[in-house]
Specification:
The chain is an all-alpha fold. The protein has one domain: Tetracycline Repressor, domain 2. Helices cover about 75% and strands about 0% of the residues. It has 9 helices and no strands. The N and C termini lie far apart (about 60 Å).
Length: about 220
């Protein structure tokens, strides 16, 4: 078999995998990971059950691949654009703005993929929960790290011991805006959350100018 034929098959397989995972991330954001089965995905994606089974092998493998794909989108949408800003308060403000926009713009049909799937599997031990937990823990840790950098740089006057508390409040505002918008169909929640984030950071010593991304 020629290398050209092999490369062509690999390219088609990669394209099919990307197409299936794109549909899977949207489906899981609405119905949760428990509802993400090979059969159900076949019904809604236009791909055959056998082709999906060939690509992923099992429901758990499909779930894990879907989480990884959603995490790539999360990073590309929220985290990577913020890395053009210096560590600390300026990057923190852009991260929170991007987080709100990611939910408001419905990058995934059901809003934040990880908020939806965390509620679905948070009490069900296993590799799938571990993958979601790792993604969430890394996000929480990254926000807390930016708060600590801001304190060390003098951009916030808060006690370093309060960094985790401040990060917790910022993430909680982001997640509640996502949940409230989905439940009530009211995007004003994002503006409320942005104002509350600004107030919290100003109370911690931030200058309003550095919080311009949250306006």
């Amino acid at each position: 078999m020629s290398d050209q034929i092999v490369d062509g098959r690999r390219a088609r397989g990669d394209a099919s995998r990307r197409s299936v995972l794109s549909r899977a991330t949207h489906l899981a954001s609405v119905e949760g990971l428990d509802g993400l089965t090979i059969g159900h995905l076949a019904e809604t994606s236009g791909h055959s059950k056998s082709s999906i089974a060939t690509l992923f092998g099992s429901k758990q493998s499909l779930q894990l691949a879907t989480i990884a794909a959603a995490r790539e989108v999360f990073m590309a949408t929220i985290v990577e654009p913020a890395r053009t800003e210096p560590r600390g308060l300026r990057r923190l403000a852009v991260l929170m703005r991007n987080g709100l926009a990611y939910s408001r713009d419905r990058v995934f049909t059901g809003g934040c993929f990880f908020a939806a799937t965390s509620a679905d599997i948070d009490s069900k031990p296993g590799p799938v929960r571990d993958a979601v937990r790792t993604a969430q823990s890394d996000w929480y840790g990254y926000i807390a790290a930016q708060v600590r950098y801001a304190i060390e740089a003098g951009e916030l006057t808060a006690d370093p011991a309060d960094a985790e508390d401040i990060a917790f409040e910022l993430v909680a505002l982001d997640e509640h805006a996502n949940n409230r918008s989905l439940l009530l169909g009211d995007d004003r929640a994002y503006d409320v959350a942005a104002r509350a984030m600004r107030r919290r950071l100003i109370a911690a010593g931030a200058s309003e100018k550095m919080l311009a991304p949250l306006q």
